[in-house]
Amino acid sequence: MTDAYPTPTVSTEWLADHLDDPKVVILDSSYHLPTVKRDAATEFEGLRIPGARFFDFDGKIKDPDADQPHMLCSPDRFEREVGALGVSNDSFVVAYDVNGIFSASRCWWMFRTFGHENVAVLDGGLPKWEHESRHVETTSPTQPKPATFKASFHPHLVRSAQHVLDALETADIIDARSAGRFLAKDPEPRPGLRSGHIPGSFNIPFQNILADNGTLKSPDALKAIFTGAGIDLENPIITSCGSGVSACNLALALYVLGREDAAVYDGSWSEWGLREELPIET
């Protein structure tokens, strides 16, 4: 990582000052839960940060054969898709989303999983950018010039159900879903899933790590949240959620705290809650 580019987040001020930097590639990584009935790709067509390209991890940049939603794709597919977006190994990627900090962290985690550390999340996302009356594009997006990207898979950053099952006694597993879903008091948004949580896991709803303006809380505040929930920051850590999106927000916060090795359970509850042979607690 060059010293010129900050990670794991950049401010709106920083991005505004670097819009013309040829190495900076801005990716709109917006995603909406199926229950929201919004189309992130269509919204991107109508409004975006200048020069942004759409990072479609729910449609294109995923494993097309997986039963669970937007599972991590193969290195070859990732290379092809991000290369088509104009991302090279020399690029500094800035991911944002329309919710503030929600799905942009999935993009950040995917790039890191494929060996690209030159990536950051826009702190506060599009809401903060617009609140500050910064320029946006509303005309049709231009087609980026393709680039060459070579992936280097880092398997320690992604966990399977078997990995989680084997780590129940040794790792701190943190669930980013709401307390209601974690405690089986609220229904799951996806049909056919059991209610509850992975045995022994901790609950930190991802909204808890965000300040009122949608930015990440301070490192001291983040540390207090994790330790206050009972997590030992020296233990192996796996984050989980509904489908592997908001778990990446916890991984982002843990990165700030020096835990760059925090792994994400990719299938999360969309897999664990579906498979009857896997244990649950309520």
Automatic annotation (TrEMBL):
<dbReference type="InterPro" id="IPR036873">
    <property type="entry name" value="Rhodanese-like_dom_sf"/>
</dbReference>
<dbReference type="InterPro" id="IPR001763">
    <property type="entry name" value="Rhodanese-like_dom"/>
</dbReference>
<feature type="domain" description="Rhodanese">
    <location>
        <begin position="20"/>
        <end position="138"/>
    </location>
</feature>
<dbReference type="GO" id="GO:0004792">
    <property type="term" value="F:thiosulfate-cyanide sulfurtransferase activity"/>
</dbReference>
<keyword id="KW-0670">Pyruvate</keyword>
<dbReference type="GO" id="GO:0005737">
    <property type="term" value="C:cytoplasm"/>
</dbReference>
<dbReference type="InterPro" id="IPR045078">
    <property type="entry name" value="TST/MPST-like"/>
</dbReference>
<keyword id="KW-0963">Cytoplasm</keyword>
<dbReference type="GO" id="GO:0016784">
    <property type="term" value="F:3-mercaptopyruvate sulfurtransferase activity"/>
</dbReference>
<keyword id="KW-0677">Repeat</keyword>
<feature type="domain" description="Rhodanese">
    <location>
        <begin position="167"/>
        <end position="281"/>
    </location>
</feature>
<dbReference type="Pfam" id="PF00581">
    <property type="entry name" value="Rhodanese"/>
</dbReference>
<dbReference type="InterPro" id="IPR001307">
    <property type="entry name" value="Thiosulphate_STrfase_CS"/>
</dbReference>
<protein>
    <recommendedName>
        <fullName>Sulfurtransferase</fullName>
    </recommendedName>
</protein>
<keyword id="KW-0808">Transferase</keyword>
